Amino acid sequence: MSIRNMDRDELELLSYKDITYLLLEDDEKQTTPELFRKIVELLELPSSVYESKIGDFYMMLMTDKRFILLDDGKWDLRDRHTSDIINNIDVYDDSEEEDTGNKNKEDSDLYEDDIDMQEYDDDDSNDDYKDLVIVDEDELDLEE
């Protein structure tokens, strides 16, 4: 069923996810603010709802597998896209960070320093506190 043929009462029975799905099914891809603005208008909600819930709406879109965020910042239905495009969007591209074998000296020194710090951190930290003594407040007043 098209969202254009639904009245407000029918829309109120649907979740934001379902309304978003119907909007994207009828229209082209859209940004988060565009989608949520349309939902607020369709449900005749006050603008304060838009301002207070747009972050939750974005998180809902991110976690729902029916939707996909494209490179241009617009949402679309996942089933409209090939798996190659989905894999390119969903997987972190670390091609710029490939190891070229040309590490510069400063980077390797920093890495060695990190290893040294890890070894230091693994030592028993209780040794640092063995000479400490707990002093009562009354004893502090006497010393002054």
Arithmetic mean pLDDT: 75
Helix share bin: 40-55%
Count, helices:
7
Radius of gyration (CA) equals: 28 Å
Multimeric state of these chains? single chain
The sequence of SSEs as H and E is: HHHHEEHHH
Gap from first CA to last CA = 82 Å
Lateral strand order in the biggest sheet: 1-2
Determine the strand fraction and express it as a percent band: under 5%
Query: What is the general shape?
Result: elongated
What's the story with the biggest beta sheet?
A: 2 strands, antiparallel
Structural class of the secondary elements? mainly alpha
Number of strands: 2
Uncertain runs: 90-101
Describe the structure.
With 144 residues, this protein is mainly alpha-helical. Helices cover 53% and strands 4% of the residues. It contains seven helices and two strands, in the order ααααββααα. It has helices at residues 8-12, 16-26, 32-42, 47-63, 83-90, 105-122, 137-143, and strands at residues 67-69, 75-77. A two-stranded antiparallel ribbon has the order 1-2. Strand 1 (67-69) and strand 2 (75-77) form a beta hairpin. Helix 2 (16-26) packs across helix 3 (32-42) and helix 3 (32-42) crosses helix 4 (47-63). The chain starts with 7 loop residues before the first helix and ends with a helix. 8% of the residues are buried. Residues 90-101 have low confidence and may be disordered.
What is the secondary structure topology, with strand pairs?
Layout: H1 8-12, H2 16-26, H3 32-42, H4 47-63, E1 67-69, E2 75-77, H5 83-90, H6 105-122, H7 137-143
Antiparallel strand pairs: 1-2
Helix pairs in contact: 2-3, 3-4
